[in-house]
Each structure stands twice: as structure tokens, then as C-alpha cells.
Amino acid sequence: MRLRCPICGAPVEVPDDAMPGELVEHDCGVVLEVVRSGDEISLRPFQGVEEDWGE
Amino acid sequence: MPTALLLYDILRDEERLLLKALERFFRVKPLHVPSATMKMGSAAEAEVALERCVGFHRAIASAAAAESWGVRTVNSPLAIAVAGDKVLTTLALLRSGVPIPRTVLAFSVEGLVKAAKEVGYPAVVKPVHGSWGRLLALVNDEETARAIAEHRELLGPAYRVHYVQELVRKPGRDIRSMCIGDAVPVAIYRVSSHWITNTARGARAEPAPVTPELEDVTLRACRAVGVEVGGVDIVEDPERGLLVLEVNAVPEFKNIVRVTGFDVAGAIASYAYGLAKR
After folding, report:
1. How many CB atoms lie within 10 A of CB B62?
2. Which residues make Cβ contacts (< 8 Å) with residue B242, sequence separation at least 6?
3. Minimum CA–CA partner of B34 in chain A
4. Do A21 and B34 touch (CB under 8 A)?
């Protein structure tokens, strides 16, 4: 599916079976996270590694 | 066919591999925890849950919710809580007689200076919670110890518990071994000339043999912490043998798969299936 980058507005190709939490690197340099709201899939800038992340 | 939940927040290579492997045995329900609500005590809709959240607090909470549904959850919330806390991990390892490096806790600037001297220079100051080699500090002398302590004092209460450990004279590498149930099927060396031998910090992964000693230490460490599926970080001391640094309850394994070819996800899925059949 084709979505829009929330930063630069350019189109971003995302696999049809994309799942929330998937990360997509975009040509404009931003990393985007797939989010789902109801049946709708969209992209938001990835917030980055948080303090309590790890193994 | 039983049902498995995959509790996750960020979908990485490991989670993709697990989803695919679980599908061989289960109806799989991926649950994106950040966008979910999890009512405590609901009826179970799955036999097994695999906890894969990289957020420590999210992992404990979502594993607890799954357990409250009566779902057999791997790892358990208590195991994740202990494994994610270096002080509690150290307590569990000591109680079980698992060998660890010399470790001293301190609670003030002067305490950290004293602790570093006690374990011997160079010492390593580690955050009690934290992973991927972040915020580790190497202390070579009293002046550095004091400076690090003063900086940590400003970071908030969690950083005013100073976990100070000797820097083991490891042979340019450490070991990451995988525990899956009662088995240690695979291990890697993490090779680096840097004192931090973490692949997240650029160390090179190479296959390592699973010796009887490594298998024994890995299983004892995981049992001590209560972890069923875990990645254990181990260093080789020239005199004392294998010493355990930490147990990881949501282990990454893409580097293990890459250099050994071992199907870690398949082994975890198979283990989960064994639990579902009980």
C-alpha cells in the first residue's frame, strides 16, 4: 500500500501485510513506525529507543 | 490447533522469525501491546504467550496481564522483572551458587569511590536497569569514580544505586548462550577489542561451542532467575572459569541465527508447543 510520510509528505511504499510496530526507513532520513487505528494503517515518526528498552 | 499470543511492541527480525515459526504449531495472535488494552483477569483466549516487548516495564505488565488470563506466559512477569534488574539478578545468582564477578553496591558518591576501590581498578559502573551496553562506565581511578558518581547523582533516584563490578580480564570476547527450556542448543562469542563486548556496540559474533561447563552455568543462571527462554551473558576468567554477567529475558537472537544457522525461533516455538500440550 502507498502511504504518506508525515514528515516530508512524499509517498512511502508499505507492504500490504504491514503490522503495527513495524519500522520503515524513508528516503528523507526519518524512521517511521506503522500504526493502526481501527482498520486504518498510517505512519508516524519513530520515537526512538526509550530508556527502559533492552533485552 | 492451540493458540499462541505474541506480545510485542516493535516488530524486529526476531519477532518476524517467531511469528513464522509459531505458525507451524499454533494459530498465532500477534498483540501490539502499545495499542492494546489488557483487562486483568479475563478469560484465556490462548494456551501460550511469548513476551517480546523491548520496553522493560511494558514487558512485565503485558506478561502479567497474560498470566492473569490463565495463559502460560514465557517468560513469566516475575522472571522478566528479576532479569531486568541487575541487583535482583545478582541476588538470585548468588543464592543458587552461580559464579559472578566481584560486585559491590553503593548509594552515594563516597560509597561509589569506596566500592570501586573494593572491587579493584579497573571497575565498571552499570545502571541497575538497562541493556545494550548503555550507560556503562569504566572506572580506572578514584578521580574518575568520583566524577561518574557525581554525574549519576544528577540522573535521579534509580541512578543513585551504584552497581559496581570488577572488569573481568576476558580474552577479547564474551559469550552469549541461549537457554530454551532445559536445553542450551547454541552459543556465540562476541569478539571486540573494546571492553564492552556487546553486538549492539559493534562486537563481532562468531559461533561458540556449547561445552558441558557452559551448558551447566547457562541452565543454572536461567533457573536461578526463573527464565525459561533466555540469553545469558558470560565472561571467561582465566582462573575462575565462567562468570555470569546477566540473564536476558527477552533475548535478541538474529546474530546467533546469522553466524550459526541455528533455528532459534523454531526451537522456541517447539518449546512453546510442548507447554501448550501439557
Report:
1. 27
2. B99, B175, B213, B214, B217, B234, B235, B236
3. A21
4. yes
Give the residue extent of every domain in chain A: 2-45
Residues in a beta bridge with A42: A35
* Cα B40 from Cα B214, distance rounded (Å): 39
**Burial state string for B218-228 with b = 16 or more CB within 10 A and e = fewer than 16:** bbbbbbbbbbb
Residues of chain A positioned with their CB less than 8 A from the CB of B174: none
Nearest to B130 among A22, A35, A54 (CB): A54
Grid cell digits, residue B106: 553503593
Q: Is A11 on the interface with B (CB under 8 A)?
A: no
Which chain A residue shows the shortest CA-CA distance from B247?
A55
Is A36 touching B (CB cutoff 8 A)? yes
pLDDT of residue A17: 87
- Output DSSP code: residue B44: P
Q: Which three cell numbers stand for residue B66?
A: 497474560
SS3 label, residue B260: helix
| Cell output for B101 | 564477578
A44/B contact by beta carbon, under 8 A: no
Task: Please count the other Cβ atoms lying within 10 Å of the Cβ belonging to residue A50.
Answer: 13
pLDDT score of A51: 84
Summary mean pLDDT of chain B: 96
Strands of B3-8's sheet, edge to edge?
A: B27-32, B3-8, B48-51, B72-74
Dump pLDDT digits (tens) for B166-219: 999 999 999 999 999 999 999 999 999 899 888 878 899 999 999 999 999 999
CB B110 within 8 Å of CB B94: no
Confidence of residue A39 (pLDDT cuts 50, 70, 90): confident
The single-letter code of the amino acid at B252 is E
